[in-house]
Structures are given as C-alpha cells and as structure tokens.
Amino acid sequence: MREYKPVKEGKVREIYDIGDSLIMTATDRISAFDVILKNKVTDKSAILTRMSKFWFDFTKDILPNHMISTDVADMPEFFRNERFDGNSMKCQKLNMLPVECIVRGYITGSGWASYQKNGTVCGIRLPEGLKESEKLPEPIYTPSTKAEIGDHDENVSYEQTVELLEKQFPGRGEEYASKLRDYTLALYKKCAEYAYSRGIIIADTKFEFGLDEEGNVILADEMLTPDSSRFWPLEGYEPGKSQPSYDKQFVRDWLKANPDSDYLLPDEVIEKTVEKYKEAFELLTGSKF
Fold first, then answer.
1. According to the model, what pLDDT value does residue 85 have?
2. Cα distances (Å, whole numbers) of residue 235 to 83, 241, 253, 285
3. Is the dihedral of CA 143, 145, 190, 211 positive or negative?
4. 84: Cβ–Cβ under 8 A, 6 or more apart, which residues?
5. Residue 70 pLDDT > 70, yes or no?
6. What is the pTM assigned to this prediction?
7. Mean pLDDT lowest for which of 28-32, 79-83, 144-148?
8. Burial class for 117, CB neighbours closer than 10 Å (0-12, 13-18, 19+)
9. CA 6 to CA 9: how far, in whole Å?
C-alpha cells in the first residue's frame, strides 16, 4: 500500500496530493486569533466536511465546485480507514486564486468596530445610524488577501483585487475580479435566504475560488461552515447588541475573557462548541449528525 504525506498543512486541515486529484482532510484542531489551540474538538472535522458537502451540492447551479467525493471508497487504500472516513473530501486540483472572498450581510465584529470609528467597513461607506448586528441594506463584498499561518489577512479594495489578479493573469484581472465578487454575492444571497428559512442567520462568511485547466472559476476550499462563517440563531435575534452564535465566536469570547489561558480551553467550552456545531449542522441540513 502506498503511503501519503500531507503536501500542505493549514491551521485546521491537511492536503494530500494523489496525482490526478487532492484529498482534503479536516482535523479536530481549532484556531482562534490565528493561533492553533491546544485542544481538539471531537467530531468537528466530520461536521465541517458534511456541512461543506451539503452546501456544495446546494449551490452547484450557481457555479461548479471542486468536490469529487466524500466516500473513502473512492480514494486510495491509504485513506480507507477510521482516520480519514467522514472527514475527507476528494477534490479537483485547481490553481487557487490569492483572494479571500468575504461577504457581510450584517454589521458585526471588526466591521462594527470600523463603522463606529468612521462610518465605513473596509472602505465602504454605510448608511448612518446602523446598530450593532443590524442587517445591511444589501450584502457587501469585502475581500482580503490570504495570509500564511500566524499572519493576519489584509483587507483590500475591489480595485486592488483587480491589480492582484492582473499581475497573475495579464489581460484577465478585471474579468476574474468581477467574477469572484459576483459569485460571492450570489452564493451568499441564495444560502443566507435558505438558512434563514431554517432558523439561522448567516451574518458573514468567506469563499475561496480556483481556476481549472480551461481557466474557469471553480468554488473550492470549505463552504459555509462554523469555521468560515458567523451563524446566529434567528430566534431571539435583536439588533443593538452582539448575538449568541453557532460558530467559533463562542471560543473567541472565552479566550478574550480569559487572557491568561495560554490557548487551552476547559472541557465545558469544548463540549459547548461541539454542541453548537452539531445543532447548526442539523438545523441547516435537516438530518441528524
């Protein structure tokens, strides 16, 4: 049996090259504030993989995605075991684009902090008088550059994404930049509307895209998981304050309140986090985890 080693290890995922495609394996690691925490979150990897699969299937009418299979039977023998079963996805190889495509439907987090200072979010002027966690008149596209582990992503304007992509793909920067923006907004609108009908508000999220061999834009990475999005319960939602959430915000809040924790979470915080991830999965997909 041929053995495989990860060709890339991110904060919470490992990527294996199997020749004609990739295996993307989610781990039970969790990161916050660009640091990998010392704890593992049981079942997190399987929840995130199944949630991404659900959304990839749900949005393939908008554009193709990189998912080939989540069944280890479709992967080399090395992956057909407990370590990879349920948390791995066989994916198409792509030339990944260097833009994190962030979309915000509600004003919260760093966006709210920025708005309080100068009435803008990532350089976009917003109407006066918005409250914290309020729904924006229209979702806004606020891209950033992708950072390496330990570095912070840097917010960039739409025009800067055109320049960035033009350097990489001379003559096609504007075309690719506009596609990324338009796909991001279309994906968000469709998924946020659906999630709302299931009792979840998607406050903001990020998407990543790559190009196939023909130069077509393909949706990649993970999609609309609690690791890449802010999910709020619709029940009890009220603008004017921060909202309870189904995502990593719970972990971030605990770390902020306990600055001397050395990034080690107590068991009850881990358990609560797993519960929140499972609840979000079950509400959104309508199936038991």
1. 97
2. 37, 14, 21, 18
3. positive
4. 23, 25, 72, 75
5. yes
6. 0.93
7. 144-148
8. exposed
9. 7
